[in-house]
Amino acid sequence: MVLFQLPLSLTMLLVTVLAEALRPGLLHPGPFLYSLGAHLVLLAACALVPWGRLPTRAWVVIPVLDCLAIGFSREAADHYLTVLGFLLVFPVVWLSLGRHRSGVVMAVSATILSAVLPPLILGMDFTGPSFIRIVLLPVILGAISLTAHLVSNAVLRQRLQLEEQDKELQELLAASEQRERLLGTIMDTVSVGVCAVDEQGRKILMNKQQSHHLAGTLSENPPAPGNEEVPVFGVDRSSPLPPARHPLRRAARGEAFTDELIWIGAGTSQRAFSATSRLIKDGTGRSSGAVLAFTDVTALVTALAAKDQFVASVSHELRTPLTSILGYIGLALDEHPDLPADLDQYLVVAKRNAERLLHLVTDLLSVASDTLAINLQPADLTRVIRHSIESATPRASAAGISLHLEPSGPVTGRFDPARIGQVIDNLLSNAIKYSPNGGAVTVRARRDGDNIRCEVADTGIGMTQEEQAQAFTRFFRAARAHASAIPGAGLGLPITKTIIENHGGTIALASSPGRGTTVTLTLPEADGGSLDAGEVPAMS
Fold first, then answer.
1. Is residue 308 within a helix (H) or strand (E), and if so which, with residue range?
2. Which of 145, 174, 237, 451 is the right S-S partner for 96, CB 3.0 to 4.6 Å?
3. pLDDT per residue over 394-407, tens digit each?
4. What is the CA radius of gyration of the chain?
């Protein structure tokens, strides 16, 4: 209240002092001097009255009385101080502030009273200028009041909007800080190293696991002397990984990859990590960085290596006595053709099961090695397929399965015909085993650009998406295969995959339950040259 009243009081004081200086005697006892006392009383009331205890709009009394006090001061002075009427702007603007339109009405009413009441109370006659002032002054000050009201409302609305926006920003900031704390807690809780990089490869986010296990594997700046970077190796644990192949660099270039195996460190402290990268896209779909996850798989890799070593050792130890058993059974059958029929049958059954067991042991050795000797030579894939179909025909006929090779000319390339024959044998064996009586197996071979492609499609029981994801896992067998008691060890597809990958090719599987399975093989370097009509690749 004092701050609103003070501009009028100070202006009145300044005008009075200047008027006394320009026209001495103005402050002699009289009506003008008494009117100045009214201004002092109003200023004191602003300071002393407990306005907070009064009704909300009680303050309007002060600017209304200000208008009357200004009117009395103007009328009590001589014509030299008619300019005091301009001071009505202060109380008029004060009344006009705020949301209430009634302030404009009160401002105009107070202006009219300031022009009418003082002459009546002081007993002065109304002159022509007085009537003009009574008419024009409310109009002018009413326009000023309305303008002040509109401007104050606009400012008030803007302030409220700013306050609302500030409140929203505070809430967003608090929510953002909460999410940041939550994200930090989650990242530091998981056992996976997480790192985010921008498009220049600069690290912008890293959790504690990443800092602990992978710090120093690749820095943005050259390492200082005595602070060399931790060495990073490829899958073989001995070949240093080129900087361009480092997961952080690849992710910064916009590459997305999954489960890339790397080895970090040297000696007994060397650890295996599986690296996965996912790109960050901006609003336009452009890569703006990447998030990488590094999972410590040392224990898993060690366990797999130990398992493979165990399988290889056991398989090797089993192979020697099995070979001896088969040899002696063969000698017994060959050298003693006059054995009793039942004894001969027993030996035949023993030989068949020993051969099956030896085949299983051979498969175990192949799986454990993960690398097979590949003898690349010019060969015709169509001929290889025909040989496999001929070998599988008796089993297919017994199971009521028809085998088809779609008409195709020679499909030549450079591959190991014996190993590819083993692949086709495995796929045909699976197709026959998992197809119901009356089913069909179709084999297609064709050239696809610089590659050769082979498809083996059956009308069997098929696989679910989850089963397809594990189809190439060693010893995995589908649930329906177990339920149907279909024989097998779950090694055919892993061996097939190993052979194809050692050729530099790929293998893909498409299947749906009850609709069959299609396995597609792709081998590189289709231009294997022409083969003579009588030439048959070695099938041993």
1. helix 298-335
2. 145
3. 888 888 888 888 87
4. 50
